[in-house]
Write a structure and sequence with these properties.
With 521 residues, the protein is α/β, with parallel strands linked by helices. Helices cover 41% and strands 20% of the residues. The strands form 5 sheets. Strands 14-15-16-13-12-17-18 form a 7-stranded mixed sheet, with helices on both faces. It has a 6-stranded mixed sheet with strand order 9-8-7-10-11-19, with helices on both faces. Helix 11 packs across helix 12. The longest helix is centred in the N-terminal third of the chain and has 21 residues. The radius of gyration is 24 Å and the shape is globular. The termini are far apart. The structure holds nicotinamide-adenine-dinucleotide. The site of nicotinamide-adenine-dinucleotide has 31 residues, from helix 9 and helix 10.
């Protein structure tokens, strides 16, 4: 199969060079790419290649990494193991493409993203299947994520006309001023494995619509759906080199990328530890940096809400993506009056949760993505027990592969407000409940963490909601909901959860710079 793949890529390269002589073809879909990808698609081939310039390519070293299905350890596919030399080639391609892409009108860049969104919607089932196979999440969640990525591109496409600058007509004694808004150049994006397609779309949409080009490095634990996304974007008309995807691990591919001299901005999403390392490695370089890091979101549940509905909401939110979401509610802070009814509902519902292969429609949750993650959650549960919490575990279904990273959900009650275990981010289906006497205590517990990504308040009282929204230390506060991230609003953390914002209109300042020209009269 690899042989057929190469023949197609080479055919594509030759024909593309001929086409490249015609100016307009640079921003039009290539029939050749269509032919090439449909051949790959029909074969069901998951033997994927990196996307650098106009090539789908192996790494310079020729090494490859096998991606395993977290449900049973079977091969999900393979990707090239990229390194510094691949990053150098991708940066060259992105720099070359920047010359033309930065001159394309905003509206045309928007149209290109809109076409990508259309194709992604059409191919959502195919992309979702790739995502489930490598990441583990249930297929319906994978499809939600893929459709979410399409919505992100549509948002950025629609925002293209808002990327404007300014004009000051009359400045007595100075003349008049024109403010131009310019793209930064080549940007770098580094993303985690938990929501790879959606997070890639946040970074791709913002960087591209503002006229930048991008080198993106997905996590080696879930790179395939992102490669498929990039390939679909090229097929829908994105010119070669505007988006480049280098696969590889953090040390071999991520580190050279963030250190490359030509990178003007780094947008990183991942753990606090890696975020710190990147901030340290780039300090003094004048590269712009956005850090979207971990979270330890509190969900404060007041005594005026229905405890059964609140428990059902808490369970549904925490089990989404098997608890592996930065903004998953990771600490349930429940008021005294409804505490017992809240946990009694969870004691009833947790044993009913069906856990299994993400491709099985009966599975409410899939496996965790990787073994280290599973060990981390199991260890946290044991340590919580040592701290005095009581644990209730869900059940594993019969017939699951012993090679799958399955982790039955766990309810932890009687958790201490100052629990050491709960001061860290737990990335899995653990629902810890902390009792609080009143709103003041609830907010104090909620804020007693180094994280500040998201937080929610559940109440029917507008005054309570407003006070909590004011006092909770988080980049986003939800009222009677949690974890919703429409692209129309800015998203990002405070405190240890990072800095910088994605989405909303914040992307305009994040991905452009303003040049002021002052003209005397
Ligand atoms: P991670 O920090 O281990 O890895 C993230 C990415 O960084 C990967 O692509 C990895 O290869 C790369 N990387 C690792 N070392 C690097 C280095 N030295 N230089 C450059 N790149 C390097 O995180 P993860 O385990 O993939 O993801 C889980 C974490 O991501 C959790 O903490 C979660 O909360 C966080 N997260 C945050 C958000 C957000 O928007 N705030 C969203 C999703 C996930």
């Amino acid at each position: 199969m690899r042989y057929i793949h190469h023949i197609n890529v080479n055919t594509f390269r030759c024909l593309h060079r001929i086409e490249a002589g015609q100016k307009d073809d640079w921003v039009k879909p290539s029939i050749v790419i269509l032919a090439y990808t449909s051949a790959v698609q029909r074969s069901g081939d998951r033997d994927m290649q990196m996307m650098i310039g106009d090539q789908f390519t192996e790494s310079v070293s020729g090494k490859r990494t096998r991606i395993e299905n977290p449900s049973d350890g079977t091969p999900a596919g393979e990707v090239p193991s990229g390194g510094a030399e691949d990053v150098r080639l991708a940066m060259e391609a992105a720099s070359e493409a920047f010359v033309r892409w930065s001159e394309v009108p905003n509206s045309h860049r928007g149209i290109t993203l809109f076409r990508s969104a259309e194709l992604i919607r059409r191919e959502a089932d195919r992309l979702a299947l790739i995502l489930t196979t490598e990441q583990g999440k249930p297929l319906r969640e994978a499809k939600d994520e893929v459709l979410g990525a399409a919505a992100v591109f549509e948002y950025y496409a629609g925002s293209a006309s808002l990327i404007t600058a300014g004009y000051s007509e009359r400045l007595p004694r100075y003349g008049y001023g024109v403010v131009q808004r310019k793209p930064l150049g080549v940007c770098a994006a580094i993303i985690p494995w938990n929501m790879p397609v959606l997070i890639a779309a946040w970074k791709i949409g913002a960087a591209l619509v503002t006229g930048n080009t991008l080198v993106l490095k997905p996590s080696i634990q879930a790179p395939m759906a992102v490669l498929a996304l990039g390939e679909a974007m090229q097929r829908s008309g994105l010119p070669p080199g505007v988006l480049n995807i280098v696969t590889g691990n953090g040390a071999d591919a991520g580190d050279p990328l963030i250190r490359h001299d030509a990178v003007k901005k780094i947008s990183f999403t991942g753990s606090i530890e890696t975020g710190r390392a990147i901030a340290g490695a780039t300090a003094g370089t004048m590269k712009r940096l956005t850090l979207e890091l971990g979270g330890n979101d509190p969900m404060i549940i007041c005594s005026d809400v229905d405890p059964v509905a609140a428990a059902d909401a808490a369970l549904a939110l925490r089990l989404y993506n098997c608890g592996q979401i930065c903004t998953s509610p990771k600490r349930m802070i429940v008021m005294d009056e409804i505490h017992d009814a809240f946990i009694s509902r969870l004691q009833q519902t947790i044993p009913e949760v069906v856990i299994g292969d993400g491709c099985d429609p009966a599975s409410r949750i899939g496996p965790l993505n990787n073994e280290a993650g599973k060990m981390g959650v199991e260890d946290a549960i044991l340590r919580l027990e040592d701290e005095g919490a009581r644990i209730l575990r869900g059940k594993l279904s019969a017939g699951l592969s012993h090679k799958g990273f399955f982790c039955p959900p766990a309810l932890a009650t009687g958790c201490a407000a100052d629990s050491k275990v709960l001061s860290e981010e737990i990335f899995g289906p653990l629902i810890p409940v902390i009792r609080a006497g009143d709103l003041d205590e609830g907010i104090e517990i909620a804020n007693s963490t180094r994280f500040g990504l998201g937080a929610s308040i559940w109440t029917q009282q507008i005054n309570t909601a407003e006070r909590a929204a004011e006092e909770l230390e988080a980049g986003i506060v939800w009222v009677n909901q949690h974890m919703k991230l429409p692209p129309e609003v800015p998203f990002g953390g405070v405190k240890g959860s990072g800095f910088g914002r994605e989405n909303g209109l914040s992307f305009i300042d994040a991905y452009t710079w303003e040049k002021t020209i002052l003209i005397s009269r």
